[in-house]
Amino acid sequence: MKKYCILFLMSFFMIFNSFGKNDKQFYFKIDGKINADTGTVSLRFFSEYIPNKVEELVAKVKNNKFSISGYISEPQGVHVSFENHYTSSNFIIEKGLQTISINTDSTRKMPAIVNKTMMNEYPRYTAFFKQHNKKSSIFSQKYDSIYKLNNYQLPKAIKLIADKEDDILYKEGNQLLLRYSENNPGSEIAFWSLIQKMIFGYEPIFDSIYNSFSSELKNGYAGRILNTKLENGKQLSVGKLFPPFQCVNRTNEKFSSAIFSTSKFTLVDFWYSGCGPCRAQFNRLKELYNQFNTKGFEIVGISVDRDSDKKKWEDIIVNDKLIWQQYWDMNGKNSQKLSIIAIPTNFLIDNTGKIIAKNISLEALNELLSRSLE
User: How far apart are CA 196 and CA 187, in angstroms?
Assistant: First the structure.
């Protein structure tokens, strides 16, 4: 139900520079079939977790076939896409030759992949999550139907219920992943599933999942990167003080955590100018701000726009009439250090600077503010 923009930022940090220097590279090749005569297939990586930082490899389709090759240091979580018509779910590639068969009519589904991991473990992995996936599918179908019946907008009361159910399913999925990884410490599929989850922010259970993996996985290149991201991400756990954060407003004044002491609750909202889901929230945020600002509620916007998009950021502030304080973390440099990748992301802070909620829905926020400030 939740919509995010995933940032693939252009800079990586010094802490990663020593990684990968001694990671041996292995050749891989994927021979593919697809139900399309022409076009371009893209193999997309989690680029921060691969030594050469490659984001994608592309191949032309000819006579329903394509071939992609390159180098990896260890098995990799990837997905494939075809033009703007198809995107697969994530899967594992290995060194050496493997084959894939793509049906472009089954977007977000798993293509047929022939390699050791996908042949041997994937059926076991899907069987373990079968009931959870069934519940998730029922949840999506139910609210998609309600969404369409209400002219593609969920009523606030229904949205609040949907968000709560979504959160329950998410936490249940995390618990299941922990159980699976404890029983399968060498699972590449579970390991890359955790990496996928980290895109949407750190959760305390992720430490337990990570620690359940084998030393081989944890000591690989991706494992070392993931460990660093977990350590950085936990600084934004619920119950922690919001950490010092370097960003400036439009007059170049630095952000200070002293701002939290002036209101009972402050919502720190991370966004950027090209993020549709971010801008879709602004009208509702303005309603909440107008209703509760004089009663002890504040909002602080932090943009992760690129330096080339500074004017777009400034124009949106003016044109969308964003009257709360706005700051700019140029290129998202400091946000990424704290493992903030999925945008929008928000944190609700109390007047002591403590994080009391993360990614709170605006319906849940309204409920909390109505209860606490009215």
Answer: 14
